Amino acid sequence: MKKNKQPKPKDAKPDAEIKLDVEKIRKDFPILSRKINGNQLIYFDNAATSQKPMQVIKAMDDFYMQSNANVHRSVHKLGEESTEAYELAHKKTAEFIHADFSEVIFTKNATEAINLAMYSWGMQNIRKGDEIVLTQMEHHSNLVPWQYLAKTKRASLKFLELDAKKGRIMPEDIYKKITNKTKLVSVTHMSNVLGTINPVREIIDLAHDKKALVMLGEVAANDLRAIWNKWDINQSEKNAE
Ligand SMILES: Cc1ncc(COP(=O)(O)O)c(C=O)c1O
């Protein structure tokens, strides 16, 4: 995968300019019209399971009612339609996160994606004495795989510490913990517990200066702020060292 040195997309707007018409968006989500205990449903557990808007529900229904078949395999009309839909979903996702088509891999959830990165890239590239940098605010899914890898390869884990009062990473810690020994920095973009948005641009730039790779958890932050900060593990560059 390519290193993440891409500029901000031309149409990207600063946060202050992004205006969401919340009422209009809510209408797209049928489940939000439910009342529970007499109260209109308000749902915040999106990092765990996000609710689906009508457009997604309809696309899934249409697919199962019209085209459902194996992709890249079945040589009949339904197989062709399914393959086309599958490819198109990858293409649209790539455009949304400003990645190349070949860089998009769908997994069933974040935990599976991180384990896949650990078992494939991590097992091949992390060696004794290497350092993997995480933060103290990581979800288990971005902690346990790296603990396992560090133990297996006799590498070490370092944690960017939090300022307990502000719930934020201490800026000076970034410069202390990301060093020439760092091979991977894996951090959440936005904490699901604290709501803290991490200074990922700064972390990525420093990690790249140290020739380390960066993995960002976008589970809680998959909005417009995130689109130019994509996952940038670049196996070929690392292997070339
Ligand atoms: C910040 C964060 N990362 C990762 C996960 C795990 O996500 P998944 O269930 O997709 O594996 C969650 C789930 O709540 C989360 O909040």
* Strand order across the largest sheet: 4-3-7-8
What CATH first level of the largest domain would be assigned?
Answer: Alpha Beta
Low-pLDDT parts are: 1-9, 224-241
How many structural domains can be distinguished in the coordinates?
2
* End-to-end C-alpha gap: 16 Å
- Ligand types: pyridoxal-5'-phosphate
Overall geometry comes to: globular
Structural class: alpha/beta
Task: Count the E strands.
Answer: 8
In this structure, how is the largest beta sheet organized? 4 strands, parallel
| Rg over CA atoms | 20 Å
CATH superfamily of the largest domain, called what?
Answer: Type I PLP-dependent aspartate aminotransferase-like (Major domain)
Describe this structure in words.
- The chain is α/β, with parallel strands linked by helices and 241 residues long.
- The protein has two domains: 15-103, no CATH class; 110-239, Aspartate Aminotransferase, domain 2 (3-Layer(aba) Sandwich), CATH 3.40.640.10.
- The chain contains eight helices and eight strands; from the N terminus they run H-E-E-H-H-H-E-H-E-E-E-H-E-H-E-H.
- It has a four-stranded parallel sheet. Strands 1-2 form a two-stranded antiparallel ribbon. It has a two-stranded antiparallel sheet with strand order 5-6.
- The longest helix has 20 residues, at 77-96.
- Residues 47-48, 109-111, 139, 141, 188, 192, 217, 219-220 line the site of pyridoxal-5'-phosphate (PLP).
Outline of this structure?
By secondary structure, the protein is α/β, with parallel strands linked by helices. It has helices at about 20-25, 55-65, 75-95, 110-125, 145-155, 170-175, 200-210, 235-240; strands at about 35, 40, 130-135, 155-160, 160-165, 170, 180-190, 215.
